[in-house]
Amino acid sequence: MSPSRLRLSALASLLVFCFQPAARAQAVVSQTPEPTPQLFCDPFQSRALVREQLSEAKAFGDVLKRISLLTSAADLLWPYEQRAARDLFTEAYELAAKDFKEQKEQTPTLRNGVLMQKVDRRFVVMAAVARRDPAWARRLAEDVAEERLREAEESKGAAAGAGASQAKGAEGALGLAQSLLPVDRATALTIARGSFRFQASYTLILFLFKLAETDRAAADALYREALAAYADRSATDLAYLAVYPFALNREPASVPVAVYYNPPPNFAPDPQLRELYLAALFRQVEVKFKTPEAAPSDAGGMPTEQAQLLTTLSMLEPHIARLSPASLERAQWLKGMASAAAADPSRERAADFARFAHEYEDETMFERSLEKAESERDAGRRAFAVAKLVMAARTPEEFRRAESYLDKVSDAGLREKLAGYLYFLWTQKEVKEGRLDEASRLSQKVGELDYRALLSFEIADAALKRLDDRARAGELLEAVAADALKAKDTPEKARALLGVAHLYARFDVTRAAQVLRSAAKVINTLPDPDFSADTVGRQLGNESFTVYAVHRLPGVRLENVFRELGGRDFGAALSAAGELSDKYVRATALLALASKCLEGQKPDRKEGRTSPSKLK
Fold it and tell me: Which domain holds residue 558?
């Protein structure tokens, strides 16, 4: 037996499990009314488990793994050993700062044709700090903001360098702010306001929509502040800020990073905010087009401010006509003036943007893609039209029509991937509409194990939530487990088994523990395993196009699986964690278990420890 296994066994013996006879009798019944937790753990000894993982973390050569474990351990220990936890947070932050500095000196890498952004893990640590000490997190965020501004100032000679530094500062601050919304709204808003010193970005709009889901008044007030800060700055700022008052899905002009937005359900923008925005836009147009625009020296890269403003006016015109008709006449007059004063390249950029946006309008994309798939002679572009057809389908009839066009894709490998993506999207639609039998049938046409498993999890989850149909859920999960166990040992196989265990933990803890141990065996065969993400990605295309899609699935994240099972059978989850051979993966699982045990506990001030408690 290895030393680490001995240490784990010793700690396991310290954890206290109390069983009630009646509860033990219920554990063997698979159809209990509700899986009620019946196991107790000792929070005092769970803290000892956390400290044990800290000693393991000190030996890790991988700095990112050390940062992750130090941050998690500090967060868990804070209510009981605040000074020690503060030291751990400090150590994690210093490691993250050192790592980011070293990253800046490295050349960015391309992965699957995408430029991989450097990750500033200081914000990961800050998010954990903010839950425990908001004032400290604000100070750290301010320090990083000042650093970004200095970098932008030093890079003024190189616009791209200055813009990149500004963008990173805004994205980091607003990402931190969004992570704090559920736990500390006041601090989140303070940090969000601090981002106004940077150029506006997509992260500001995402933050506003997220805030609007729970506090519309606060989101509208913050937008007013943002508009006041950005009104007289750049056309890029106004392109981003147009999204919120018009509830757009996309920015109305070219921006450094364009994303697809999903406003909250039934989101109706405040007309006053729209009028304030239009006043700022009209003012900028009048200033920028006082004199004719000189032809830009570089036709590539980002468009000029004049091109952005002309594009924004053109793209917003139908929205203004529908939502703010009183401003339409002035908007049209300004658009005519801007078009006359703009240089030819700027007019061309505005026209190209409008043409491209029209091609991707949700309402007409399906029919236009049908026409393109019928008429296109080039094989690559025809495949792209079929791909757009698949992505635009919304109803069973449209999915069936898209299915009939798959044969027009001559590349067999791409055709197979497009078919899998079609059936994946079609299955999700059937699940959403509650047609679970049809969803089950369609899911079997998806060839890839991890995507087929993901669909089975969605169907099983719907069966449990809507119908409490554990038999159907069990059949689906067993089918996924059987498929996975026949496959080669890969990360996809491990994720499938983790997802099965996660869902089983809700109604059959014995089977969940069995599948989790099977997942552990697969994980042990993988080099440098990492199951910290809760998403699975997809890429398909050819020389003419590439489609990327990311699907969220919390059940494939290692920590979530151990927390879910640990809340119902702590001993079984602890045993499964002990079977993980990779020290980092095992430590991650054990910290997740400890967090479940310590959840909601309050320290006993007299004794410095908490009493054993029932897991929830």
Answer: 1-20+33-56+448-586+598-616
Say if residues 331 and 286 touch (Cβ distance below 8 Å).
no
Which residue type sits at 423?
Answer: Y
575 domain residue, yes or no: yes
* SS percent in the chain: helix, strand, coil, step 5: 70, 5, 30
Confirm if 513 and 575 have CB atoms less than 8 A apart. yes
CA 234 to chain centre: 28
CA 295 from chain centre, in angstroms, equals 41
The tokens describing 227, both together, are: 């508009």
Secondary structure (H, E, C), 567-584: CCCHHHHHHHHHCCCCHH
pTM over 0.90, yes/no? no
Task: List beta partners, residue 537.
Answer: 550
Residue 291: φ, ψ to 5°: -125, 155
CA distance 12 to 115: 45
Centroid of chain to Cα 429:
21
Report yes or no: 40 and 16 within 8 Å, Cβ to Cβ: yes
Phi/psi-derived region of residue 468, left when phi > 0, alpha when psi is between -120 and 50, beta in every other case = left
- Asked whether residue 244 is assigned to any structural domain, the reply reads no
Among 12-26, 90-104, 554-568, the least confident range = 12-26
Strands 110-111 and 114-115: antiparallel
Residue 559 lies in a domain: yes
Condensed to tens digits (0 to 9), the pLDDT of residues 498-513 reads 999 999 999 999 999 9
Number of domains, the chain = 1
Give domain status of residue 414, yes or no: no
- At 113, is the pLDDT very low, low, confident or very high (cuts 50, 70, 90)? very low
Please, which residues have CB within 8 angstroms of residue 468's CB and are 6 or more apart in sequence?
Answer: none
What value does the CA radius of gyration of the chain take, rounded to a whole number of Å?
27
Q: Is 599 exposed, middle or buried (0-12, 13-18, 19+ CB in 10 A)?
A: middle
Residue 215: CB partners within 8 Å, gap ≥ 6? 185
What are 609's strand-pairing partners? Answer: 604
Query: What does the alpha-carbon distance between residue 134 and residue 49 come to, in Å, rounded to a whole number?
Result: 27
Q: List helix spans (H) across 109-241.
A: 122-132, 134-154, 159-180, 185-194, 202-214, 216-230, 235-241
User: Coil, strand or helix: which one is 592?
Assistant: helix
Token couple for 376: 């296109």
Q: What pLDDT, on the 0 to 100 scale, is given for residue 110?
A: 43
> What one-character-per-residue DSSP string does 391-448 give?
HH--SHHHHHHHHHTGGG---HHHHHHHHHHHHHHHHHHHHHTT-HHHHHHHHTT--S
Helical axes 216-230 vs 271-288, angle rounded to 10°: 10
Cβ neighbour number for residue 265 with a 10 Å cutoff: 6
pLDDT classification of 106: cutoffs 50, 70, 90: low
pLDDT level of residue 58 (50, 70, 90 thresholds) = confident
pLDDT per residue as tens digits for the range 562-573:
999 998 998 999
Calculate ∠ Cα 87-89-90, nearest 5°: 60
Buried/exposed code over 511-521 (b: 16+ C-beta within 10 A; e: otherwise): bbbbbbbbbbe
Position 154 confidence tier, pLDDT thresholds 50, 70, 90: low
* 546-552 and 535-541 beta bridge pairing: antiparallel
Tokens 């950029």: give the residue: 349
With beta carbons less than 8 A apart as the criterion, state whether 577 and 62 touch.
no
**Beta strands 40-41 and 613-614, pairing class:** antiparallel
